Amino acid sequence: MMKNERIYEEAVKRDGEEGRDHRLSRRSLVKFAAGSLAAGSVAGSLKAVAAAAPAEAGAPAAVDVVPTSGLEGSLYYTESNPGRWHKKIKGHLPVLSAKRDESGLTVTVVTAHEMKGFEHYIVKHILLDKYYNVLGEKMFDPTKEFTPKSAFVFSGAAYSGTLYAVSVCNKHDAWLNSIEV
Q1: What is the mean pLDDT of the chain?
Q2: Quick one: which H or E segment has residue 13?
Q3: Separation between Cα atoms, residue 59 and residue 112, nearest integer Å
């Protein structure tokens, strides 16, 4: 059974009969999107291209490792496949940085996007591991936060591999980028 089918079946169990209207909650939408990304990565291949910016001393190198599938450029957008939003890359693509020290791993996600109240803003950042499990998310209040920046701290974390960040814009959909730690 595909992960998306399982999510639907869980919604049916939770909400009642199959014929009922099953509108996705935010949490179900994130699970559905993450499941779709995972399914797309199995069908597609991974590409790795070293990022142009040099890494800080002691910081992991940034790597563009984004699943290539039929979903890229339609369900989510990337730098290499921005789909219909090809003029929106700079302000929507999340930029990840990671710093490992004796206390653990800190991953910072920044989206160079203005926050114009509820008119146009970054709704949230979602951090996923290499298996597309949600490690954390940060919701933004555009009336109080003027820079979409989030920090995810993992105490004593020995994680290594790809981390993905999704930046969700209220008008220009979900954007995916990654870093290798």
Answers
A1: 74
A2: helix 3-15
A3: 21
Classify residue 167 as exposed, middle or buried by CB count within 10 Å of its CB (0-12, 13-18, 19+).
buried
Pairing of strands 63-68, 45-50: antiparallel
**Opening angle at CA 180, ends 53 and 141, nearest 5:** 80
Cβ atoms of residues 86 and 92 within 8 Å? no
d(CA 67, CA 43): 9
Q: What is the pLDDT of residues 57-95, one digit of tens each?
A: 444 444 445 555 677 777 889 999 888 898 998 999 999
Helix (H, G, I), strand (E, B) or coil at 62: coil
DSSP secondary structure, 102-154, as one string: TTEEEEEEE-----BTTTB-EEEEEEE-TT--EEEEEE--TTT-SS-EEEEEE
CA distance 69 to 16: 33
C-alpha radius of gyration, the chain, whole number: 17
Instruction: Name the nearest CA neighbour of 111 among 150, 157, 80, 82.
Output: 150
Tokens of 179: 């870093």
